[in-house]
Each structure stands twice: as structure tokens, then as C-alpha cells.
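INFO batch 0412 | record 1 of 1 | parsing
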Amino acid sequence: MGGVTPKSGTVIVLGSLNLDVLLRVPHLPRAGETMHSRGLDFVPGGKGANQAAACSALGTRTRMIGAVGADDGGTLLRAALRERGVEVSGVRTIPDSASGQAYIHVAPDGENTITLHGGANQALGEAELGALDAALAGSRVLLLQLEVPLQVNLQAAQRARAAGVTVILDPAPAVPELPREFLACVDVLTPNEHEAQTLTGEADPLAGARALRRLGVPAVIVKRGSQSTLLLQGDRVQEFPVSAVQVVSTVAAGDTFNGALASALAAGQSLLEATAFAVQAASLRVSRPPGYGHLPTGAEVGGSC
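INFO prediction complete | emitting C-alpha cells
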């Protein structure tokens, strides 16, 4: 299949921007354990910003809507997205708030744990919804996550649905439930296995996907890491195998998947094609170090569509 060109429709990402503090550790911390880090890096992140950067790297026009603090982290975060080609006029600076931060422990096998401090991400409100209203015309996809206030996400999904824009929700971080009125405005829900189980209580990924479908979501994609990816669209189940790669880091792999999915859908691909494209992009991402400079491009994933 093809990749994505800048001629495809615009993707809007409304969500979080965080300064990621990466700690390279010998293994993931256990309760009560103190350990020395083998390395320390500061890189731009946040699920929203990561997804916007991944989408733009694939050649899709991408607008980021969010907030940062009036600090060095905020300056870095906005500049990093601009350098990746993301439109950042919708990223507001909040004077009395720190930028969001994420503390990420990364083990030698690439697995990680993350602790978040929301900061400015928790201050999103009417200003961001106004920026969304202005951006919806001419856009094809709105991509949401759960690192910003739920009410803002709900209103954003409702406004996008009214405008005929496809809504993708990445339900992360995991929550035990989401309002039905929110799910009613979501076209594609993309939990990983843990998030699907948290939302439904179902340990089996397919059973979890079906439980989410019963809540009214037309399509559910369950990301299963190195195992496979499941797509449940209506009553149709499709499993996508994951290419065997040498894993360097799983940081932002799910975000790359979502950015690629939005990118392909904005280019007019079917959900089946877009999911296959996203699986390829995420497989490439885990074979590389963290950071926006290592994001897959459309040519690397599969050419132009």
C-alpha cells in the first residue's frame, strides 16, 4: 500500500505536551527499590505532541492544540514540534503554570514505566476549544488522548462529530470507564491491552474489543505490542501481525501508531489500510532511539498514496 503525502486532509491533535525525563535503568523499578540511572535524557513528549510529530513526519498537515508553561520546557516543546513541521499556533502559553512533565524509566529491553505531572495540560479549556472550532473546517481527523481534562475532550469530540470530522480516541492513560456520551462521538478507539482490560474488565483482547463495540464505538483497535494488532470493525475481526525487529525503545510506539493511523485516514485510506500502515510505522519506531529525529517518514513506511 502507499504512504501519505502533504496533499491529504489536515489532522488536528488536541492533547498534551510534556517534557520527557528519560532515565535508563538496569530494570524497571520494584516497590521500595532505589537504583542508579545509567543515563539521563530530556526529550519532547506528551501523548498529544508525540502523535502530532509522528503524523507530520509522515507528510500530513498537522495542527497541535494544547498548552505549555512559560518556562524553558514550554519553549523546547513548541520549537520541537515546529521543527517537525507541526502548526503550533494553537499551543497556548500559560504564565502561572509549569509545562507538563513525564518521568520515564526505560529498561534494557526497551520496556518502560511512566509517571506524569500534568502541569499546563490540565488548564486546557475554552481557549483550546475555540482554536479547535477555527481549525475544523478543512480538517479530516481529530486525534484525542486522556492526558487533558475529560470535559475538554468530550466537547472537542462533540464539535468534531458535528463538523463531520473523524474522531480517533487513544484512551490513555488507562481509566476504568468513559462517559457513553463521549464514546458516542468516537469513530475509532485505540486502547492497548491494558487499557482495554481496564475499561471493560475483559482479559482477552478480542472480548474487550467486543465489549467496547457494545458501548457504541463503531471500530476498536487493540494494540498488543510485539504480539499483533486487532481491528474490530462492526462484526469483522482482522488481526495484523507485527514485524520482527530489534527493539531499541518502546517509548512513544503507541503514539506513532496513532499518528500514522490518523495520517492514513486523512489521506483517504480505508480503516483496514490505515491500520496496516500504522502497524508498519510503529514497528519501525521501536527499532530506533527515542526522539522526534528518529520518527518514520512516509517513504520509509511505504511510499506515497
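INFO post-check: The longest helix spans residues 271-286.
INFO record closed
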